[in-house]
Amino acid sequence: MTKIVIASGKGGTGKTLVATSLALTAARASPCTLLDADVEAPNSAIFVKPELVSHIQVERLIPRVDAKRCTHHGRCAKVCQYHAIAALPTKTLVFEEICHACGSCAVQCPEGAISEEAVSVGVLDSGWAARTLTFIQGTLNISQAMSPPVIRALKQHALKLGWDAHDIVIIDAPPGTACPAVEALKGADVALLVTEPTPFGLHDLTLAVEVARDMLGLPVGVVLNKSGDDDSIIEIYCHAEGLPILLRIPLDRHIAEAYSDGIPLVLAQPPYQAQFHTLLQHTIRLAVEKKL
Ligand code: SF4
Ligand code: SF4
Questions:
Q1: Which of these three, 72, 90, 119, is where a domain ends?
Q2: Average pLDDT of 128-142?
Q3: Atom of ligand 2 nearest to the CA of 103
Q4: Strand, helix or coil for residue 259
């Protein structure tokens, strides 16, 4: 099995365009799983149009303080490495938005004043987009700020559904280089970083390379979207860093129109099927070479 994460240093670079066409291409040859881990704004389903047959809640255990039992001595606040609980002289407060649900405060409270309540933080929807394409997407609840638990649950759910039996797993990661993107990249075999030939594109690609290659040790390939007459800003950087540019997608009004209509690139323009097939082969090779 090869786990390929499609990532980018910022949103709007064409990550989903690449992930969906790559998944449809892979599924033509053998069983493939596509995970939409962009849980704050999942939109791969618009393109692959899955039949969703399962809908499950993702929950986190949030501490609740019993004011009658709390003696306000502050041990919980001392053990919380995320500063998500504060013991004031008359009240102990939990800041749910930054609580990592680690459970330490409940374990360490000598008065037994902390219980844990399951709170829904998101949902997982799964089904099939084609006979050989399993599709699973995570969606963060609107009121929630922490997406990594939903991404973790998404990957665990995919494992339960048997992603390890599939030849190819493609993960559409959240944009950026913060914790959600790192969560999606963890455990991957290879990262495809999608960028565009602009100063912003270069800046964000540089950050994404630092996370995927330098921090997580993944082999990295680059997909250059909105390619034009002068791609030198990205070419010079990739050459200096030894990063292969595996696919160029031109700045083309017809591609943008198909995207806005929810049509995958390989279906809107079938000649791209061969290019995505080549992209898949080169990406797998990067992963295999790293393992050798
Ligand atoms: S450790 Fe328990 S008793 Fe002490 S302040 Fe925290 S909740 Fe209250
Ligand atoms: S569960 Fe963990 S992160 Fe949340 S408040 Fe308690 S110690 Fe802090």
A1: 119
A2: 92
A3: 1
A4: helix
271 pLDDT tier (thresholds 50, 70, 90):
very high
Pocket flag, ligand 1, residue 80 (CB < 6 Å): no
pLDDT at 185 over 90: yes
**For the whole model, what pTM was predicted?**
0.89
Q: What is the chain's alpha carbon radius of gyration, rounded to the nearest angstrom?
A: 22
Cα 61 from chain centre:
22
| Ligand 1 atom, smallest distance to 105 CA | 1
Give the domain CATH number at 113.
3.30.70.20
From start to end of 76-163, where are the E strands? 85-87, 92-94, 114-130, 133-140
132 and 157 assigned to the same domain: yes
* Full residue range of the structural domain in which residue 167 is found: 2-58+121-291
49 Cβ below 6 A of ligand 1: no
CB of 102 within 6 A of ligand 2: the answer is yes
CA of residue 78 to ligand 1 center, whole Å: 10
* Residue 42 sits in the same domain as residue 138: yes
Is there an atom of ligand 2 within 6 Å of 146 CB?
A: no
Asked whether residue 167 falls in the same domain as residue 22, the answer is yes
Question: What pairing do the DSSP bridges indicate for beta strands 168-172 and 133-140?
Answer: unpaired
Number of domains in the chain: 2
